[in-house]
Amino acid sequence: MKALAIFLFHSLLFISPFNTIKMDNHQLFLKKQQQYQEDTALYEETLAQYQELHSLYQELPAEDLDRPSLKAALLKTKAGLKAFKPQLKTDKANLEQLFLALKEEDIPKTDFLLEFALNAEAVTLKARKLQGNIQKDQWEEKAI
Q: Source organism's superkingdom (predicted)?
């Protein structure tokens, strides 16, 4: 039993850092996903504003005094959209890669628990054999 307790204790110490890393990666993924969604919403909002400005520009007569300033705003917005779109594509690709990495990192819980139980059973059997080899007066039980 002592060996089993030691094994379980060391297993928890060994597994805990991996769970922390996995949790950090998952939190990072969620943050990046949220940022991507916010950026996409901003892009779509800017695109809608551009389309609205473009329709207003089309409706203005050629001799209107506001037409040149509206054209400048349209060109500036279009340039911003062109610069922003590749960044969104890159962010999406990075997000997909991070998702795939997290998916590969996941160990199915049932497989892990089965393997853990088999290892614990093997250690228990070894501990019983060792305990059988030691005389009762030499065996010390210590509380952990």
A: Bacteria
